[in-house]
Amino acid sequence: MSQQEDFENQLLEMEREYGGTERTSRMLEQLREAHGTGVDTLVKLGTQTEQLTNIAKLSQEQESYVSGLGKYKKFNKYMKRWKKGEEPTPQPKEVHHEVNRIKVKHVQDVKIYNNKQAERERLEREAVEKRQKELEDQKNNPFQEDEESRFSKGLSRIWKNDALSSGTKQELNYAADNHSSPITRQSEIDQDIQNNSFIKRSKWLEVQDQQLDEMSDILNELKNISVATHSELKVQSLKLDDISASVDKGSDFSLKRKSQKQMDKEKKKQAEAEKKRLEKEEKTRKDIDKKLKSSGPPKK
Length: 300
What we know:
Layout: H1 2-18, H2 22-67, H3 73-86, H4 92-140, H5 147-158, H6 166-177, H7 182-201, H8 203-250, H9 260-295
Helix pairs in contact: 2-8
């Protein structure tokens, strides 16, 4: 009876020290909340994807509608004139000032980058030198030998002329070091039986096992939710790109494709402008030569 009471006391002591399901219950509750939030987020992302699909359809309809307005030339010219008026042409001084500001900023950015790069290289070089010095100090120190190297050297001296493999030698050495007497083995067996009885009588261990199983299932579901969320976000990103491109095209009133006649006309116009420019340059050159000849050689 005293042995049974002693066993019960030990069981209660173990339960007080290691038992209780407060931590696992708290962790399980947090995982349940995370799972609920992930599911709710995934559902909302699915709804947003449907809305983006509808918006993409509307933007495509707008694009096709606006592309049909290109045939109204007067309306097209009016919109171009109105759009041009919204964006005033910057003055030469402003452009010059902006270019100088960008150049100065670029030079400063290059200097800052070069300084940071030099500092990083210096730190890396000092770290490598410090490490090399430590390795050299360890190499030159005869008292720096660790336990593993001494043990391996001892094995090499003991088993130097033996035909067994290195793995077998290590197993034999481990067995020799961990050799125990029959009395010690019997006490270990009794201890294992007692621990097994503790496990069977401890109800809180069963509860923890159930909670851990549920945690594992929730973690697997969270992994699937994260993959699905990533896929939904990727789909939404593509939808937004399509909407942006469609809106840009839908706001352009010069979408009508030019005919071959219009393209030939524009090429002819460009060729005539280039011809006039060359003729003007040639005329200017001849005038300069004529003035130089009429002035004659310089007087001595």
